[in-house]
Fold these 2 entries.
Entry 1:
Amino acid sequence: MTPLYVARPLLPSRADLDILLDEIWASRWVTNEGPLHNRLEAALSRRLGVPVARLFSSGTSALQCAMLALDLPPGAEVITTPLTFPATAHAISACGLKPVFADIDPDTLTLDPRAVARAITPRTAAVIGVHVYGTICNDAALQALCSQHGLRLLYDAAHAFAAEKAGVSTAAMGDLSVFSMHATKLFNTIEGGLVTSRDPALSERLQLARNFGIASEEQVKSVGINGKMSELHAAIGLLNLDAFEHERDLRRDLRARYDAIVATFPGLIPQARQGDVVRSEQYYMLRVDPEIFGASRDDVYDRLKQRDIHARRYFWPICTDYDSYRGAPVASLQPVPVVERVKTTLLCLPFHSGVQPDHVQIIGDVLTDLSASRPAIP
Ligand SMILES: *Cc1c(COP(=O)(O)O)cnc(C)c1O
């Protein structure tokens, strides 16, 4: 069997892509907000139901441009979760701001609004919630807290494309939401990013931020970077936008199959089930409680790897384990933050339409093997 990885990029057919590449070659308009780029922005704005949908070269450049567009004061503190991909915290630092970490909710593993409240200081300017694994943040509580303290609320929605909670799209939460369209994400443009907002006033600021702050031939208006998406990436996006729902349906079936297996093992805890949501189906995350399951997360990871099934220990290490932020405090309601207790239990299984019944069988066998190796209770 070929190796199985946690993600597999959704790719359009070469024939469909060729038609769009012919358009690009005919016009020689290859980047700088070209026709395909603009078509994709319009399509995303329609699909996600928000007036503002701006494309970027990556999720990371989108995060940076989102903060530039909000014009946060230099050196201000931005509160976020330590349980995320490095890009969230690093984008804050790269913008000359200071990441401050707050603990996660023990059930959803998303930013705990009560922990955020403890992390707020007079220097706090913004909060970035992360819909980690596609589990949607407690938006109502975060929004209430941010409104009360005059803070901006951003979401890193890299795991939550086209997801909804109580009929509200993740694209319409907070001041703005940032998506990644990296190859590993459900909807991808190979490399790419997106910022969405309900606030039309942010549209121009986002555009300036991704294009060096250039307002016209004669005016450079604000600090900006090169965060633009090329026509080639936009072409992939236009085609994948028609295809991702089918991929998501296949992942829903896979989730049900994984759930059925996980439910048979005490000590394996599935991802939080949220009511009234449309799931992004970005990741299948489970927690391994070694005391009850009889083997550790790393045991499961190693044993799967021996069978060429490459799960990922997302997100471990957490941000406060990185050299850049080591020793930074995590504001928490507990003496030991929840995130410290769960970080060694998290495992993301391969989750895409390339996962075959044979793979699922092997994963089930590995779990059975490991749990059976647990010493009998006297
Ligand atoms: C993928 C990801 C990013 C970064 O996106 P890139 O497109 O790779 O720059 C940011 N945050 C989270 C949570 C991610 O998973």
Entry 2:
Amino acid sequence: MEVNTLYRNSYPVLDINLDKISANARIINEICQKNGITVSGVIKGAGGNLKIAEQMVNAGCKHIASSRIEQLMDVKKHYPTFETMLLRLPMSSEVEEVVKYVDISLNSELDTIKALNKACSKLGKRHRVVLMLDLGDLREGFINPKELIEAAIYIENSMKSIELAGVGSNLGCYGSVKPTIKNLTLLANTAKEIEKIIDRKLEIVSGGATTSLPLLINGELPNGINNLRIGEGILINMDLPLLWNINIDGTHQDCFVFTAQIIEIKEKPSHPIGELFVDAFGYAPVYEDKGIRKRALLAAGAQDFAMYDKLIPMDACIKMVGSSSDHLIIDITDCTKEYKLGDLISFKVFYGPMVFLSNSKYVRKRIVKE
Ligand SMILES: *Cc1c(COP(=O)(O)O)cnc(C)c1O
């Protein structure tokens, strides 16, 4: 079934395998549930695809999460019973939309939470917040746990329409900091301190994203953490096996497959000819001279997938050469298969290209089953 058609059978195409995503979601939910951890299924990497949100909830995800409120508005309109979680700190310009369409938002600014409280009063709503602790990755969150605890107490005691749902942290996004026993223990301890003061359990102690799964799988996730927000690990599960060396039985890495068509095949030198300056994006790359090579030109480019080096050819003989805005160049010299003009070349994708491909209006999305 086609979600949006540019024209009939247009290329490039992104095949989305719902059954494989569903299998990944079930396996990860099972691992988490065994350890007393709820999963918030993150849909932003897939452009907020509603069918994927549905698979995630069917597989046991407690919330549907995204950094983009537009995607959560869409979820809430189609599935009013799904609990939504906003991952990016709310903008002051969107507080009314947040309390209307979002059940839980991640926060680090008391002024924003006050604005949410006000919007709740105006609209007769209630809203839950998770306070973010910055454990060193230096994106969002209170850097000082004491300040976070003070904010938590203030919300608990003084805000009418805002419920303190819990605390959370994010790692490995800006600062590439690894989740560890040490940094996540600080989060768990902060949660315990708040629980002691307010004399009740917190609903959510959210210990990160896909990158926290290795700790959980190795039995090292600190006690007290009871939620993870998982996107990549469910959607493509490429990083765990290929970067973290963690293979989870039964998971699929080809839930998203990108396919583009060959528009030229020629033998060419591998080093550009003439005086070199800069490429289409102003960079001055270094080109290795491998002599004359057989190259295929594909009709898809950086504006579709952003990073050609994060596409993995399904046919292992293919080497990635480079891309410009609208073209992808591959080396097919070592292939035994005789590729022809018009042939289709398919790739597995890492997270980067998945985000861009999912959001490109030039890429046809095709839901496949298998
Ligand atoms: C994107 C995001 C996630 C999910 O990250 P994955 O690596 O896809 O699992 C979790 N939390 C926050 C705050 C995010 O922005």
